[in-house]
From TrEMBL:
Assigned keywords, A-Z: Amino-acid biosynthesis, Aromatic amino acid biosynthesis, Lyase
Keyword Phosphoprotein: no
Pfam families referenced in this protein's UniProt entry, alphabetically: DHquinase_II (PF01220)
EC category name: lyase
Name of the protein this chain belongs to: 3-dehydroquinate dehydratase
Organism expressing this protein natively: Faecalibacterium prausnitzii
Protein function: Catalyzes a trans-dehydration via an enolate intermediate.
Phylogenetic lineage: Bacteria, Bacillati, Bacillota, Clostridia, Eubacteriales
Family statement drawn from the similarity comment of this UniProt entry: Belongs to the type-II 3-dehydroquinase family.
One of the record's GO molecular function terms: 3-dehydroquinate dehydratase activity
InterPro entries: DHquinase_II, DHquinase_II_sf
A biological process from GO: amino acid biosynthetic process
Protein residues bound to substrate: 73, 110
Protein encoded by which gene: aroQ
Amino acid sequence: MRFLFINGPNVNMARFTEPGVEGEIDYNALLDYLDVCCQQMGIEPDFFQSNHEGDIIDEIQSAAGRADGIIINPGGYAYYSVAILEALQLCGVPAVEVMLHDPSGRESFRNTDVVSFGCQGRFAGEGISGYLHACSYLVQLLRLDGSAQSHMVQ
């Protein structure tokens, strides 16, 4: 199985923590960690990050035929990018959204996650573990019947 991991704006600048691991890791260490975890799950990961909405849309559109699933962390685009939503709806590849932090309790504009409407699942507020949960969920979804049925996970 091949999964396309798409990370949006500013994710490349973030620092991450993981329970049981001392200190913080940077974006490149996160990708290394995800690569190892994916290989153990039998997943071939392909990583992409951009701060530009159009580049993210181009990547989603190119997923058909080269990825079995998409794991997307759209960053701030989650709250207003109808264009990313439409790309996910049209590309024909099931997607699961990951939000590193739980947006509830933050600014009111974060109450509606537009991008999530184009995803078959969503993991929010789980830190980098959300990526692994999204992988497991997408594997299960694809193995059930080969198609993605909508189910939002919080």
